[in-house]
Design brief:
A: mainly alpha; two-stranded antiparallel sheet; 14 helices; B: alpha+beta; nine-stranded mixed β-sheet; 3 helices; 14 strands; about 15% helix
């Protein structure tokens, strides 16, 4: 009996809470919550940000802002100018062009499966998608529009105040809400229907070459056991084939430059010399569509990328140990860092990389220009 | 009036304290914190150099391991608490605690846990939480999990070259169970246990490792991985 009383009280409390919830929801029809329709083999431990839950109206607004040229100084470009859906949201250039043909110094990153990432830009300077989304608007080499000007342009528009009202409950537009809406849209950019996905779901077989490539991709070599590996999966992890989202763990110096020529990279954010020359390991979904490659777009083809990792690693004090230490042959006394993959093995890895192409993703009408 | 209030306060105090004397709560909060130490200093992954037991320098970059199947035992009464779904990925730059939550009250005097992932969990990939194969602890879809990962760099004492050390230890024989005595755990009393993971012990006892002497400093599978596992089964993790 002593147990029953609190239980009964608990029930009353719960009913009270439920009815309170109903009351507050009924009068105002707020934005419609939606969830990410991600496959069950994607990481399931990443919550939506509590202060920016995904809603139908927020995503739709974000999609419009993503394609909105008013967000550039001269109205000539939008986010989508450098992040084009047909190229898995890259632009095919080594460096992207901003307003007035100004040119950046980084390769436009592909956008997909961003919900599972926590640091953005090649050097990791943004801690959230919300924070990242507004920076290119202001960057003088990109859209070159002071964010206050972006806010007032949208505020003066016929449509946007009402759209912000329905997405966020207020007509007053702010930089923060622009970032939130863009982040919501970008979170919906799920790429999960490549051949690799179909293989994970047991729907298709890989060709022998693709299968060998997959195994090499995910294997760190151990020459004393004749275990051959391409050493890719040490940085491009798991089913997402993306960098480690834990802090700055997913940033690496992948041997592009020797000691004297190391770029600043992550050191710009951490101010630790240990992080010089480290850049974000990007997700490799749709990698066959997103060349040129590397943070500075220096390689045109996947073959060049594989040749780099196999034969042309430049040693430096911050070179990633997983690269420094990876070889398919036992040390021969020389100091060169070489992976020693065969031509057939390199081809197999590239064949596997092509299984990451997702035609549905690049043609999904939900991600396309809403103004067309 | 004042006196009345004092009397009431004192009275209620008496009632509360007498309750505590008579009844031990059925459950108690138990939390485990882990501390990582190398060469007597707190581990850091930001470029700081440490000295290995061999005297070689070592700059760690990544340190992660699984603690699983945590049990609390009272060897006097025979009571045992086995944590369900007990898989914890511990990492220097991530989670370093195991919150067992509310456990049945007892004067536990033994803590039992394993380093690694048991054979059943190691044979599956459709797992969630700390066993999510998307973390970098799964080798691939055939080989199971890395139980312990230590990566870093050292200066080879023979060549004077910077070299990487990559320890990826896994496979079922290297799953090791450890029992540690507990003192001071009292039934009903919330307790935080501190475990000390001493990285020196990965290179010592029973197998002494001198990294400059190794044929390959990628330690995965094979005999050498087994030697490291023997090292972590003894003296690596202890109650502080």
């Amino acid at each position: 009996m002593r147990i029953q009383i609190p239980a009964w009280l608990g029930l009353v409390c719960m009913c009270g809470l439920l009815s309170c919830g109903n009351k507050s929801e009924n009068p105002v029809s707020g934005p419609t919550p939606i969830s990410l329709d991600a496959p069950d083999y994607f990481p399931n431990n990443v919550a939506m940000p509590a202060d920016n839950p995904l809603t139908e109206q927020g995503v739709q607004l974000g999609r419009m802002l993503f394609y909105e040229k008013k967000l550039s100084a001269d109205g000539s470009i939008s986010c989508a100018s450098c992040h084009q859906q047909q190229k898995a949201f890259t632009d095919g250039n080594q460096f992207s062009f901003g307003v007035h043909d100004s040119i950046g110094d980084m390769n436009a990153m592909s956008l997909s499966n961003l919900h599972w990432q926590n640091r953005f830009f090649w050097n990791g300077r943004a801690a959230s998608l919300e924070e990242q989304a507004v920076q290119p608007i202001e960057d003088e080499r990109e859209m070159n529009l002071p964010i206050a000007e972006a806010v007032s342009r949208l505020q003066a528009d016929d449509q946007y105040p009402a759209l912000f009202q329905s997405a966020f409950g207020k007509e007053e537009i702010s930089a923060e809400l622009i970032g939130k809406a863009l982040a919501q849209f970008q979170r919906t950019l799920l790429s999960a229907n490549s051949k690799f996905d179909a293989w994970i779901r047991n729907e298709v077989q890989l060709t022998p070459g693709e299968q060998l490539g997959l195994e090499l991709f995910f294997t760190h070599p151990e020459p004393s056991l004749q275990l051959r590996g391409g050493n890719c999966g040490d940085c491009h992890l798991g089913f997402l084939t993306a960098g480690d989202p834990n802090g700055f763990t997913g940033f690496h110096n992948n041997g592009l430059d020797a000691e004297g020529n190391l770029a600043t990279g992550l050191m710009a954010v951490t101010e630790n010399p240990f992080d010089q020359g480290k850049f974000k390991a990007p997700g490799l979904r749709n990698i066959a569509l997103t060349g040129p490659y590397m943070h500075d777009g220096r390689f045109q083809t996947l073959e060049e990328v594989l040749d780099h990792y196999n034969d042309h690693i430049q040693n430096s004090p911050t070179l990633d140990v997983l690269i420094l230490e990876a070889s398919n042959e036992l040390p021969d006394g020389s100091n060169a860092v070489k992976l020693h993959l065969s031509e057939d093995e390199k081809k197999a890895i590239i064949a596997f990389l092509h299984t990451l192409t997702d035609e549905e993703f690049i043609n999904n009408p939900k991600f396309s220009d809403p103004f067309n | 009036m004042k006196n009345l209030i004092y009397t009431a306060l004192f009275g209620s105090l008496l009632i509360f304290s007498s309750c505590q004397d008579e009844e031990t709560p059925a459950t108690m909060a138990l939390n485990i914190e882990l501390e990582h130490v190398l060469a007597g200093q707190a581990l850091e992954l930001n470029g700081k150099s440490f000295t290995l037991p061999s005297g070689e320098d070592f700059t760690p970059k990544k340190f992660k391991y699984y603690i699983s199947n945590v049990e609390l035992r009272n060897s006097v009464s025979g009571e045992t608490y086995v944590e369900p779904e007990s898989y914890h990925l511990i990492s220097e730059d991530g989670n370093k605690s195991i919150d067992l939550g509310m456990v049945p009250s007892s004067d536990y005097d033994q803590l039992v846990f394993s380093i690694g992932v048991d054979e059943i969990a190691n044979g599956k990939t459709d797992q969630t939480g700390d066993l999510d194969p998307n973390s970098d602890m799964a080798w691939n879809w055939n080989t199971g999990y890395k139980f312990l990962v230590l990566e870093g760099e050292f200066t080879n004492s023979k060549t004077n070259e910077r070299q990487g050390l990559v320890m990826h230890i896994g496979t079922n024989p290297n799953y090791k169970t450890i029992t540690q005595p507990l003192s001071g755990v009292r039934a009903g009393k919330a307790t935080t246990l501190t475990l000390n993971s001493n990285l020196d012990e990965l290179f010592l006892d029973p197998n002494t490792l001198e990294v400059s002497e190794l044929e390959s400093t990628t330690i995965m599978f094979g005999e050498l991985a087994g030697k490291v596992a023997d090292n972590y089964s003894e003296g690596f993790i202890s109650i502080k």
